[in-house]
Predict the structure.
Amino acid sequence: MRARRVGGQELIETRQLSRSFGALEAVRGMDLKVEPGELFCFLGPNGAGKTTTIKMIVGLLRPTSGQALVGGHDLQREPLAARRLLGYVPDRPLLYEKLTGRELMRFVAGLYRMPQRGLDDAIDELLERFEIAAAADRLVETYSQGMRQKISFAVTFLHQPQVVVVDEPWVGLDPRSMRRLREELQRRTREGLTVFMSTHTLSLAEQVADRIGIIHRGRLRHLGSVAEIKALARHPGSLEDVFLSLTQEGGQEESPGEAPEGVQGPMPGEDRR
């Protein structure tokens, strides 16, 4: 595993971040810092609060209390400044079905007001890198789930974000594509990109993570390197063995759950009055 980078301003930070839905506490008082050039894996059982946390970090869900910051910018107070630094790949990408892959890339470039000079070359390079070039001039509505995931990554990297948040990146990908994506994320973190990744694929998290955070019943329970997390187990084993051991303590009490489907706060830049 690569050595963890230290120093510099944290690119992702949460301060007592919490979110409730009525009496349901989905995320409870989370304090977390992710540093430049770090590949951070966020793990937890279903309903633990992972996606709720991610939606607050990317500005799609307003915290009940606390703060989420990207590059020092509070997502609620400075949403546009934060989002300029940020790329986001959700577990179920919502794409414009009636655009081709290439048109989608150019549309997103316009949203970020990217200069036209060199744009076509940048788009072509990303389409090739994420193995979607052959389908670039087909409508997105014809894409398979794996192809949608690939074009989502190509779009995400177009404006050269400093932070990329990914929720279940391996969905729909075949083993070869999974390996290529893993290598791409590792290469980019070596170049300084910060990656915050939620995944249930624990074997891959064990391979790529600089640090791991385990959320359980809405609270960040464990934080450390793979070796440090594995050392918490009573018996040696894989990360999967350790994860199952750490998240089954306390019986089968109901977990706080994720954000209900379709629930989100105002998008960054919207009027919040």
About this structure: The first helix runs from residue 50 to 57.
